[in-house]
Design a protein that fits this description.
Elements: H1 2-5, E1 9-10, E2 15-16, E3 24-25, E4 29-31, H2 34-50, E5 62-63, E6 77-78, H3 81-90
Parallel strand pairs: 1-4, 5-6
Antiparallel strand pairs: 2-3, 3-4
């Protein structure tokens, strides 16, 4: 499954994964199953806050609201913040 997700951004998927039931993908996005969406959102919020570029040896990761392309996978951005906010709202902390 990790190779199927690869560097895809979290977002709306249109084709269900054959081995990871409940997960789906499209050309540039991966949609996790509903049960883990909130956990993923909170992990991404943590990464944005923790890796804010305040230390010289730590990259500045940034949540943004657009999709990357394969050529942009090393630009220190965490994409599609609207989906992350949505994930956080539908899957509360257990």
């Amino acid at each position: 499954m990790n190779s199927s997700r690869g560097n895809k951004d979290f977002g709306k998927g249109d084709t269900e994964h054959s081995e990871a039931i409940g997960n789906s993908s499209s050309t540039y996005t991966w949609e996790p199953r509903d049960e883990v969406k909130g956990d993923i959102a909170r992990m991404m919020f943590y990464m944005d806050v923790r890796y804010a570029g305040q230390d010289s040896d730590v990259p500045n990761l940034e949540l943004v609201n657009y999709t990357n392309t394969p050529a942009e996978t090393t630009d220190n951005k965490l994409y599609l913040v609207n989906f992350v906010l949505y994930y956080n709202g539908i899957s509360m902390i257990q």
